[in-house]
Amino acid sequence: MQTNYNLPEKINDLLIEHTRTNNQLQELIKDGGYVPPSEDLLVDAITALSMGKNVLLKGPTGTGKTRFAETLSNLFRQPMFSINCSVDLDAESLMGFKTLAYEEEKQVIQFVPGPVTSAMNAGTFLYIDEINMAKPETLPLLNGVLDYRRTVTNPFTNELITAKTGFNVIAAINEGYVGTVPLNEALKNRFVVIDIPYLQGEQLKELIQSQTWLTDERLTDLFVSLSEDLIHAASQGKLSEDAASIRALLDACDLCSVIPPQRAIQRAITDKLDEQREQEFVKNLADTFFQ
Hints:
Elements: H1 9-16, H2 22-29, H3 39-50, E1 54-58, H4 65-75, E2 80-84, H5 91-95, E3 96-103, E4 106-113, H6 115-122, E5 125-129, H7 143-146, E6 151-153, E7 160-162, E8 168-173, H8 185-188, E9 191-195, H9 201-211, H10 217-235, H11 246-256, H12 261-268, H13 276-289
Helix pairs in contact: 9-10, 10-13, 11-12, 12-13
């Protein structure tokens, strides 16, 4: 198998030894800040990236897609340039822009590289967040970057840029949200897709204990149970996915270290919901757990 990297020894071991325990896996990636729901999730992402494939992380908001991308860049010991997509994303946001500068008191035009050109020239990771928020007419510029060619013609300098060894792309997508558009098949086919589920159970408990101010174990267990019910309700269509966001739950745990749990849940979760029906549902659920 040809790889795009000289992988650190621990990662090579991980690819070969699929029998590692989850505790060992957590120890391996603890500095990256993301504990995957299963070993396969991490192994599959590492395998795809080591082969030079692009990875598309798909899942609801607040499941840790960005943190997972950061963990992967840490494991590969690669810096990561990022793009935050929106309807305003244009070629300059991707490639860079020209500006006036001075050299020896003479005014000159300089090109300031954007995240795509910077990552390609440095041979590092490129992260494209919420890729389906970008206008469809903007993304074809990246087609050559995302396929076997790993090249792009800079529209501002007419320079042909070929990515250095080590360049790889991770993108993230939230499906079905306002402002998003379906990815066309040509773009989607350039990625290996990894579905990122919500963290639950003991893994969520460990995340709360390691990354929030909440130290009360009883309250931590209650928040884990609350999260499970919120995720279940969201899967049944009773709540929007925003209500089940792990990011929002961690905010509630932080606040709960100082203010009462019901108020913490109201500020971090309930008040973000638009429909009064959903707000009442979450309030009743919180009152059930935190009496």
